[in-house]
């Protein structure tokens, strides 16, 4: 294969030689008389750009599933030329080849319309780019139900720096603890808003002021002892002194809460038996690449020629595989049952194989039925703690399900009529896979 690429590089630089003519040898006039031999003109090496493009095409071809071999060397060369032209066109737009191919194949229907999430507060299903907005609207609406809980949700959910959140809630909890332990001490019931600690740890975070107001503090302008100036304070309302247990509960709730996270919607779909089960067309939602990462991906592709020219160590190969796995946040998985039906679902790329087993069990009439899942190539997925990207099951994969033969034989012998192990509602909504 490397020899074919060398010939292609030469084709990019020189004209194809005619029948019986050497490629690099200039044409000669008919012999008239003997003359001293002239050394053939040395051929200029391919440009760096041509070498990089050829190496990128070689790397991509090695990653593709091996099909039927072309019938001739010329057929292979034609395919590589096509790859090189596509690589150059994609490079003009700064897009990786996967996304360029998706644009060119825009007429093909995607295997799934996108990545969707379920809002845990409302149950609404929204696209990935709408989940943050949906969470904000849901938490804002929850203020009319429980303002304390809603403000705690804001603090934990919308402040992304987890260390700052931890320091914030611990400081706020200390304020409440002092009041609960020393209710007779008036100084603990006042918090100066311009205090340096309050400003640096609490005031700068979203939701904190709403929390203090929800648990019974009000804003007052008070004189500063020993000075003629006044400052703003949070002061606990008098009636809250009789409800100190509530204050303690709010403190514990603040410390124990977690961020509100939208749940990935599996989008369970059942397809009728189809020969197209292994063909996937993924939407852009599955790519975990920003604009800067797209440019970086292009730069990394240009380095492929150097990597192909030297013996890569195992550590280098593993590092490259890890980089490839990080390109995707999600994976689309299909499980083909022995009767040909195909179950499809969306997963995080870093979720464990156990989640897929649970997903399949939820689709069965009897979730206790023993089975095993086989990955591409028939490899058994026995370690359910491995992540999908560690098993090479990203960004998509077709797996097979195998029943426990002994158990299924007993069930068939005991049953009056055979029926599908899949849930009736799934079978009723089965779709055709285009």
In short, what is this structure?
Helices cover 42% and strands 12% of the residues. The protein is α+β, with helices and mostly antiparallel strands.
The averaged pLDDT comes out at: 78
Main sheet overview: 5 strands, mixed
> Could you state the order of secondary-structure elements as H and E?
HHHHEEHHHEHHEEHEEHHHEEHEEHH
Which structural class do you get from the secondary structure elements? alpha+beta
3D shape: elongated
Uncertain regions spanning at least 5 consecutive residues: 12-34, 60-73, 90-107
Count of DSSP H/I helices: 16
Distance between the termini: 34 Å
Strand order of the largest sheet: 7-9-8-11-10
Helix fraction? 40-55%
What portion of the residues fall into strands of 2 or more residues? 5-15%
Extended strand count: 11
Q: Mind telling me the C-alpha Rg?
A: 33 Å
Overview of this protein structure:
This protein is an alpha+beta fold and 434 residues long. The chain is built from 16 helices and eleven strands. The strands form three sheets. It has a five-stranded mixed sheet with strand order 7-9-8-11-10. A hairpin with a 6-residue loop joins strand 4 (217-223) and strand 5 (230-236). The longest helix is centred in the first third of the chain and has 21 residues, at 73-93. The radius of gyration is 33 Å and the shape is elongated. Residues 12-34, 60-73 and 90-107 have low confidence and may be disordered.
């Amino acid at each position: 294969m490397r020899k074919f690429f060398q010939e292609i590089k030469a084709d990019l630089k020189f004209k194809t030689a005619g029948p019986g003519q050497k490629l690099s040898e200039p044409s000669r006039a008919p012999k008239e008389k003997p003359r001293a031999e002239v050394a053939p003109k040395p051929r200029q090496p391919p440009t760096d750009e041509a070498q990089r493009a050829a190496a990128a095409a070689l790397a991509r071809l090695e990653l593709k599933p091996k099909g039927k071999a072309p019938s001739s060397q010329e057929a292979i060369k034609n395919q590589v030329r096509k790859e090189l032209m596509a690589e150059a066109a994609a490079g003009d737009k700064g897009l990786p080849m996967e996304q360029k191919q998706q644009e060119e194949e825009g007429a093909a229907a995607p295997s799934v319309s996108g990545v969707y999430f379920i809002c845990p507060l409302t149950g609404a299903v929204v696209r990935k780019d709408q989940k943050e907005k949906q969470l904000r609207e849901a938490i804002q609406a929850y203020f009319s139900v429980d303002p304390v809980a809603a403000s705690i949700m804001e603090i934990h959910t919308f402040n992304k720096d987890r260390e700052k959140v931890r320091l914030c809630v611990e400081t706020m909890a200390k304020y409440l603890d002092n009041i609960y332990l020393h209710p007779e001490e008036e100084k603990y019931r006042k918090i100066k808003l311009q205090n340096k600690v309050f400003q640096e740890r609490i005031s700068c975070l979203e939701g904190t002021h709403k929390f203090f107001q929800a648990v019974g503090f009000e804003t007052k302008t008070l004189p500063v002892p020993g000075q003629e100036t006044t400052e703003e304070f949070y002061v606990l309302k008098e009636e809250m002194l009789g409800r100190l247990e509530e204050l303690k509960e709010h403190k514990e709730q603040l410390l124990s809460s977690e961020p509100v996270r939208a749940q990935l919607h599996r989008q369970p779909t059942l397809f009728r038996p189809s020969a197209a089960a292994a063909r996937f067309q993924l939407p852009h939602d599955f790519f975990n690449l920003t604009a800067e990462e797209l440019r970086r991906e292009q730069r990394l592709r240009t380095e492929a020629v150097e990597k192909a020219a030297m013996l890569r160590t195992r550590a280098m190969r593993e590092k490259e595989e890890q980089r490839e796995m990080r390109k995707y946040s999600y994976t689309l998985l299909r499980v083909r049952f022995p009767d040909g039906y195909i179950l499809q679902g969306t997963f995080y790329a870093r979720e464990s194989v156990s989640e897929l087993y649970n997903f399949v069990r939820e689709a069965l009439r009897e979730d206790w039925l023993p089975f095993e899942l086989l990955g591409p190539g028939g490899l058994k997925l026995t370690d359910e703690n491995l992540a999908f990207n560690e098993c090479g099951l990203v960004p998509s994969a077709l797996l097979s399900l195998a029943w426990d033969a002994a158990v299924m034989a007993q069930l068939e012998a005991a049953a009056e009529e055979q029926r599908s192990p899949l849930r009736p509602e799934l079978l009723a909504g089965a779709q055709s896979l285009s």
